[in-house]
Each structure stands twice: as C-alpha cells, then as structure tokens.
C-alpha cells in the first residue's frame, strides 16, 4: 500500500509562515489533498488537487507538489490555524484513499 | 450547502455487526461519491470505502471482507455495515462527500459518530 509520511509536529510564531510537508514515492505524480482538523471537530478540506483552494478557505493557505514531496503552506499564521493537518492521495493500484499520519501545528 | 449527519448505536459488542447511517440534506446524492472514513481517538484517518449514486462500491482492501456500504436514494441515506468487530474497530466514523469526482478529495464531512466496541 502507498505510504505517506508526515512529521508529527511543527510549531510557528503568529504572523510567520508554516510549511507542512507530506512525503511519498513520486508523490508529484499524484493529486494531493489537505485537511485541517481542530480538536473535537471533523476534518475540513483546505487544499485539493495539489494547489486548489475551496472558496471558503483563506488565501493564506496554498499547496505545491513535486518529486517526492507535497507541501501545505500557511502564510501569516494565526492562532486559529492551530490544528492537525492531514495529506491524502488516491492509491491507484489498490483503488482507495490513503492518508498521512498527520502533523500537529502549534502556534506559539 | 450539503450537510451530512451520522447516526448509530454508539456501543457494539465484540464479534457483532456495527451499523451506521449517514443522512444527507441540502443536496441530492446524485453525481457525488459517498465515503466512510474512520479515526481511532488520537490517531490518523483510515479510509473504509465509497459508493456512487448508481451503487458502485469500492473498499479499502484491509476492510473489504467485513465492510458493506449501501445507498438509499429515496431517503437520501448512505449506510455502513462492518461485521465481526473487535476493540480495534473503536473509532470516530465519518461519512464524507466527494462532489468533484471520487479522486477529488472529500469536500464535505459529517460531524462524526464515536463507536466503541466493548463487552
């Protein structure tokens, strides 16, 4: 099964830029989606197909994907961005969705 | 806006069958894909499977022998059945909608339903 690797935690000061990385074998050849999950809540889609943002998501959220790494970038981080972030791709061989282990973003 | 609401028993005994229903409001089941995803407390997300409006299903191979997803278009509901449960099946169970195609990410999620497997 396709494996996605995320660092367990990242921390950033308010106003700075957070970069959350998702690693996978030739992930650049896949379509990556990102979800934000706050405590006690369901996940929310924040980036789809590598770099597209749903209309309800602030422009501060952006995504990129190349080689073996996909990145979710959050600019001008706010306290409300503190959450777990999960990357997700579709395993085309076994035809099912695969999630990364999640990264807990702490806003200092 | 599409809204999803899961409902189920909350507590299931080991070896029994877990049954959950997702009721969809604010939109039709037509044209979208409806998935079940679970998350053990404090852990990551695990994909269970999906069903299309026409009834086509696909499952995570690790759960395919125990999971069944069905659709009731007259009631705007999608259901999950998971047989022979163990404590390892204790998790929050979410239903989710993919509006832009099954490979387009999960656009909308229900609030989740915690199912505990315990005797």
Walk me through the topology.
The complex is a heterodimer of chains A (108) and B (119).
Chain A: E1 5-6, E2 9-12, E3 18-23, E4 33-37, E5 44-47, E6 61-66, E7 69-74, E8 83-91, E9 96-99, E10 103-107
Parallel strand pairs in A: 2-10
Antiparallel strand pairs in A: 1-3, 3-7, 4-5, 4-8, 6-7, 8-9, 8-10
Chain B: E1 3-7, E2 11-12, E3 18-25, E4 33-39, E5 46-52, E6 57-59, E7 67-72, E8 77-82, E9 91-98, E10 108-109, E11 113-117
Parallel strand pairs in B: 2-11
Antiparallel strand pairs in B: 1-3, 3-8, 4-5, 4-9, 5-6, 7-8, 9-10, 9-11
What's the gist of this structure?
Chain A has strands at residues 5-6, 9-12, 18-23, 33-37, 44-47, 61-66, 69-74, 83-91, 96-99, 103-107.
**What's the main sheet of chain A like?**
6 strands, mixed
Overall mean confidence score, pLDDT of chain A: 97
- Number of helices, counting only DSSP H or I runs of 4 residues or more of chain A: 0
Count of helix runs of chain B: 0
Dominant shape of chain A: globular
Largest sheet geometry of chain B: 7 strands, mixed
Unreliable residue runs of chain B: none
Distance between the termini of chain A: 36 Å
Give the chain pair forming the largest contact, with residue counts: A-B, 24 and 24 residues
Radius of gyration of chain A: 13 Å
Distance between the termini of chain B: 39 Å
Tell me roughly what share of residues is in helical segments of chain A.
under 10%
Roughly what is the average pLDDT of chain B, rounded to an integer? 95
Topology pattern of chain B, helix = H, strand = E: EEEEEEEEEEE
């Amino acid at each position: 099964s396709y494996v996605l690797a995320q660092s367990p935690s990242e921390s950033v000061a308010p106003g700075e830029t957070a970069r959350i990385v998702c690693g996978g074998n030739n992930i650049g050849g896949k379509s990556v989606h990102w979800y934000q999950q706050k405590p006690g809540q369901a996940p929310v889609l924040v980036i789809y197909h590598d770099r597209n943002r749903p209309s309800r998501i602030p422009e501060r959220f952006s995504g990129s994907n190349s080689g073996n790494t996909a990145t979710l970038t959050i600019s001008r981080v706010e306290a409300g961005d503190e959450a777990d972030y999960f990357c997700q791709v579709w395993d085309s061989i076994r035809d099912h969705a695969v999630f990364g282990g999640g990264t807990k973003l702490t806003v200092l | 806006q599409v809204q999803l609401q899961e409902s189920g028993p909350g507590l299931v005994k080991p070896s029994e069958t877990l049954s959950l229903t997702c009721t969809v409001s604010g939109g039709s089941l037509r044209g979208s894909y409806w998935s079940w995803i679970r998350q053990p407390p404090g852990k990551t997300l695990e994909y269970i499977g999906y069903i299309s409006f026409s009834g086509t299903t696909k499952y995570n191979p690790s759960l395919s022998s125990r999971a069944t997803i069905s659709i009731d278009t007259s009631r705007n509901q999608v259901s999950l059945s998971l047989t022979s449960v163990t404590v390892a099946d204790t998790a929050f169970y979410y239903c989710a909608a993919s509006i832009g195609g099954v490979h387009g990410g999960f656009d909308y999620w229900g609030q989740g339903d915690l199912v505990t497997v315990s005797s």
